[in-house]
């Protein structure tokens, strides 16, 4: 039961990191919804710079890493620290729909024309999903971890193989 509580707290801290950065930059929250993987916040980035948008994407993983450090210092709980660090690391992968994919999109849009930016982002996203899926498969075969990791990686892989969105 403690594991589920640690996960919920880590997800909440991650989302609060995004919300705090958005509020700091005056970026309005359009929608918040919960799904099996956690919360999904949608912000109106139409009136802000790509750098501020990237900062909002980075603020969730940063909040998670900060909470992991504080948790380790005060609680010395490896499991809760590991959840926060893992959540931050996975979210920083350059995969569309994750924070790392959002940061990559911001940087590509800032420095490239729209069509090449979209194509490069798509290649990075598919490569990231395949890398994640391979790592999860290796973990599954090596240590017989639970199937949640495999389902998560498979869902990301299926999402990336759908018909691509317009650039």
Name the features.
single chain; 167 residues; mainly alpha; 2 domains; two-stranded antiparallel ribbon; 2 strands
What does this structure look like?
This protein has 167 residues and is mainly α. It has two domains: 1-92, no CATH class; 112-167. Helix content is 72%, strand content 8%. The chain has six helices and two strands, in the order αββααααα. Strands 1-2 form a two-stranded antiparallel sheet. Helix 1 (2-25) runs antiparallel to helix 2.
Rg calc: 17 Å
Beta-strand percent range = 5-15%
Structural domains: how many: 2
- E-strand count: 2
Query: Rough shape?
Result: globular
Low-confidence stretches: none
Query: H/E element string?
Result: HEEHHHHH
Task: Describe what is shown at a glance.
The chain has helices at residues 2-25, 50-75, 78-91, 99-111, 114-143, 148-161; strands at residues 29-35, 38-43.
Q: What is the element layout, followed by pairings?
A:
Layout lengths: L1 H24 L3 E7 L2 E6 L6 H26 L2 H14 L7 H13 L2 H30 L4 H14 L6
Antiparallel strand pairs: 1-2
Helix pairs in contact: 1-2, 1-3, 2-3, 2-4, 4-5, 5-6
